[in-house]
Specification:
Radius of gyration: 23 Å
Shape: elongated
Number of helices: 4
Distance between the termini: 79 Å
Strand content: under 5%
Helix content: over 70%
Oligomer: single chain
């Protein structure tokens, strides 16, 4: 393999390594957000006469998150080409380089969309839940034990 080919291979691998943590973090954040939205849906199911605007916003947020999650899975698949590149001692193929570029083209805008949900839409949604008195049950107040003679 020529020096130029080795450098191209190394550049592709380093590029994917740089993308790995943001892609992992985005996937984890999307999973956490999905859990929170599922909990909110359960809360809404337990309340009568929930304003339609709240249920519509929950559905819209869940749809957006679903699109982001699917696109993140596709980006992870494209970024997974790193294994094939590492196993070969040749120049990455055009298809492999395309997949590296596709992952990079997808991930930053997906993280921006996810950040919009995390920093704007979901907090606004939670505020609307709170305004309607729809909150998670924190549980029952516990009695604090007191030591005898103390």
């Amino acid at each position: 393999m020529s020096r130029a080919d080795r450098m191209a291979r190394q550049d592709a691998l380093m590029s994917l390594q740089e993308l790995a943590k943001p892609l992992y973090d985005a996937t984890q954040a999307a999973q956490l957000l999905d859990e929170q939205l599922s909990e909110a849906a359960d809360l809404l199911a337990d309340h009568e006469e929930v304003p339609e605007t709240i249920t519509d916003e929950l559905s819209a947020i869940q749809d957006e998150l679903g699109e982001i999650t699917s696109a993140l899975a596709e980006a992870r698949g494209n970024a997974g080409v790193a294994g094939a590149i590492q196993q070969s001692s040749t120049l990455p193929t055009e298809d492999q380089l395309w997949r590296v570029d596709a992952a990079w083209d997808a991930v930053p805008p997906l993280i921006e969309r996810l950040n919009t949900l995390i920093t704007n839409r979901v907090p606004d949604f939670n505020t609307s839940l709170d305004a309607e008195g729809i909150r998670p049950d924190p549980g029952v107040r516990l009695e604090v034990p007191r030591r005898r003679g103390g």
